[in-house]
Amino acid sequence: MTADLVARLLAESVHLPPEGDPAQAALRWAILIEDSLGVVLSDEQIGSVSLADPEHLRALVTAAPRSR
Amino acid sequence: MCGICGIVSFDRSVDADLVADMVTSLEHRGPDDSAVVVDHGAVLGHSRLALIDVAGGAQPLGSADGTLWVTFNGEVFNYVELREELRSLGHHFTTVSDTEVVVHAYEQWGASCVERFNGQWALAVWDRRRRRLVLARDRMGVRPLYYRVLGRELAFASEVKTLFTDRSVTRELDPAGLKQVWTYWSCVAPSTVFTDIRQLAPGHVATFDDTGLRVDPYWSQDFPERGREASQDLEENAAALREAVTRATRLRFERSDFPVGAYLSGGLDSAVTAATIRHATSADLTTFSVRFTDDEFDEGPYQRLMVERLGTTHHTVDVSHRDIAEVFPEVVRQAESPLLRSAPAPLFLLSRLVRENGYKVVVTGEGADEVLGGYDIYREARVRQFWARDPGSTMRDGAVGLLYPWLARNPGKAPAFARSFFGAGADPTDRAMSHHPRWSSTSALTAMLSPALQSSMAATAVADPAERMPAAAEDWDPLSRAQWLEIATLLPGYILASQGDRMLMANSVEGRFPFLDREVVELASQLPARHKLFGLEEKFVLKRAFADLVPPEILARPKQPYRAPDAPSFFADGVPDWVAEVTSPRALAAAGVFDPRQVAGLVEKARRRSRSFGNTDNMRMVSVLSTQLLHEQLVVGSGLDRPGRLAPRRVVDIRDTEEDA
Q1: CA separation for the pair B380, B402 (Å, rounded)
Q2: Record's superkingdom (chain A) (predicted)?
Q3: Partner A, chain B 18-57, Cβ-Cβ below 8 Å
Q4: From start to end of B49-87, where are the E strands?
Q5: What would be the CATH architecture of the domain defined by B2-219?
Q6: ipTM of this predicted structure
Q7: C-alpha to C-alpha distance for B344 and B339, rounded to whole angstroms
Q8: Considering only Cβ atoms within 10 Å of each terminal Cβ, which end of chain A, N or C, has fewer?
Q9: Does residue A19 sit within a domain?
Q10: Nearest C-alpha of chain A: how many angstroms from B505?
């Protein structure tokens, strides 16, 4: 995972269609983040994940364990 | 598009009348012309659907010195560029047909010439000088090519029924082939559902000479190591994809001597190809769509949206349950395989509509789901990986609700159950992890087979397609491995065959598929997986690439796989006589495929409540009906609809000409 990839992911995510249900949106984003950045999020992190806050996402990804 | 056939024997002279009969069996694939070329030990046949160079493109076509003869089905779309290259190498052309380019390309580069072709083809070259037959098939398996080897004799044809023209060929269902159908949805080449018949695998060349048959790959699907893709830039990749798809679409729309139409399904892929035609060419466009009288399956409003935006001349065929039931026997005769879904039937009716409106060629969106990550099986695998990363997480249960929002019975309503069902066996190190749920649920259908067939199948080893995946696949993204499997199994075996070539050619219509263009496929395979499937957003880069040409309603629309009503087609609005006939105890005993007691129970259940059938019962019902029809038509019968038709229009006897001229 690199800062560059996080930045790309955030830039690309603006093209996602809006998700009305916050719980579903969090799950969508968690799947995207885990798959693209190779990390594993805790349930607590999944609940708080947001693609609207770059700093929060960078911190979250840095703290999360790697999936492989 | 056309039909090809032939026989080569190193033991005896070939019966030219038999090959003439084979040609007549292919008349639906090529009603415009037909011919056989007769040589010592070899006879080639061809039935032609003339699309390029009507006057000069007659086949089989020989080289100027008469040492090579080609019978060719399909299109090499880059034939103009290849002709220029060959001219610069000293070749002289007497026609403007693509077939003559194939002849010269073989002269110049031998069998490896196919590596330079961008198109959809199955071909045979009789090389008189070397006394060998070369067979080849396009990379993705758009065009079919079957063969039978008996000792030092090989017969080949575009369709199985053509090989059955020879009454000495065993007409028998093969337990190994059936086992593949009831696992992978279709046979995986070289298998077929018939004992003595094989098919050339996509991307392969076969050489048959007096030493026997040798089959070699000339192309295989490849993906980059995860994280090492050439470009990580979405906008750059979207622009490259748009350029490639536009070029591929123009090649397929413009390289024809006849007007080319386009399918509009209501989904993204055909919207992209039709919009590209309108945007990149100045030609008028005629479009064709299937409408369903059953609202659950109809996509009419989305089709109308595209028609209005593009201003096309539009034709639709309204398909009812009864319509599907009525044509289903013919659909199975053309498909030459058991079917698990009725979905090919509306496509048969659609190609008939195309032909009735005077068109012989259509551009369609097939292949986009495979190469650009559009299928639910890819999304399902991603959710299963999500679960597997933290099996103890309860929050992750809810992800199942993201999978199938369009289903009335949304499994998201029972997340823990759905996770246990979909999540079973989600081992990320398993190369076929993505496909095990489908294969497992499909193979459950074998429980209704007769004990004898079940025993035969149990004794039959069927190779797992995942075992053929390259060693490098270990470093691919999981999505790439899933794509590889889909492109190796369902695409050529079902999508391009039972739903594609067969349903189009049954009405003498050629389908052209820009998303299966060599350049598009190779570009798509090099993209980062997230640009294809962005989280769970399918075909992300395609949507980005064509955002200005496709209405937002279609871009934002959740993926809806093309489906048609299954069991209700045969039971909800009256039961056709043929259903009772093929499920009768006599017919079931004759075929020996199914357990009659279970079939009787299933039919009774369908008569009472086919509309409430779930996925498995629908597949069971369609499997029974299609397999019984297949047995009746291609095992008991020969599969020929009109015996005694006209002989080929031309017979070219080259036996008195020099082979080493």
Answers
A1: 9
A2: Bacteria
A3: none
A4: 61-62, 68-76
A5: 4-Layer Sandwich (3.60)
A6: 0.94
A7: 9
A8: C
A9: no
A10: 39
